[in-house]
From TrEMBL:
Pfam families, A to Z: Phage_TTP_17
The name this protein goes by in its record: Major tail protein
InterPro entries: Bxb1_TTP-like (IPR058154)
């Protein structure tokens, strides 16, 4: 793999979007058209994370070859970020899609919360570089307990996004490579 300076990333800005399940990734990820909706303010400190469960390796063999091959268990991944906008839409992402709006304007916290199921898009901007994560179907729900640490920093709602298989896809989410030349000629990049 050659060294490619254009494929590096320092996040200068970013946005997180939701849309109805199966909404295609927009051709212009910097300005996604409707029905894509920005989730709102997010943490400047805890930008984004990817954690995974599963994927354990098991070496299987035969009498003739003790390490013939390796099997891997299924892996699921969770994308995490901290939402800092405590409006109705944000609170429902954290407390559950079925959190009711009560007659007095409060949000009820459901006893049996359900995650928000939707398409999900994250766009990170580094000058002219734009790096995106796109899941045509994902479940969004709280990733951790909420803590309000002090009076000097913005409080946040830690969210987890679990990308899911959508329709006949063999993948759960996709990422946009950086540093890819616009034509077949690598010198164009």
């Amino acid at each position: 793999m050659p060294v490619n300076d254009l494929a590096t990333l320092i996040v200068g800005a970013g946005n997180y979007f939701t849309a109805p399940t199966s909404t295609p990734m927009p051709s212009d990820i910097l300005v996604p058209p409707s029905p894509w909706a920005n989730v709102g303010h997010t943490s400047l400190e805890d930008l984004f994370g990817v954690t995974s469960e599963g994927g354990e390796a098991t070496v299987v063999g035969t009498l003739q070859n003790k390490s013939l091959r390796t099997n891997y268990s299924a892996r699921t991944e969770t994308l995490t970020f901290t939402l800092q906008q405590f409006d109705t839409a944000g609170l429902r992402l954290y407390y559950g899609a079925n959190a009711p709006l009560l007659p007095n304007g409060l949000i009820g916290v459901p006893a049996n919360p359900k995650p928000t199921v939707c398409a999900f898009l994250v766009v990170f901007i580094d000058g002219d570089n734009h790096f995106g994560f796109y899941a045509p179907k994902a479940e969004i729900y709280r990733a951790d307990d909420m803590t309000i640490a002090d009076t000097e920093t913005l409080a946040g709602l830690p969210l987890g996004v679990k990308p899911m298989i959508d329709g006949s896809n063999a993948w759960t989410y996709a990422v946009t490579p950086l540093g890819t030349p616009t034509s077949g000629d690598p010198s164009d990049g």
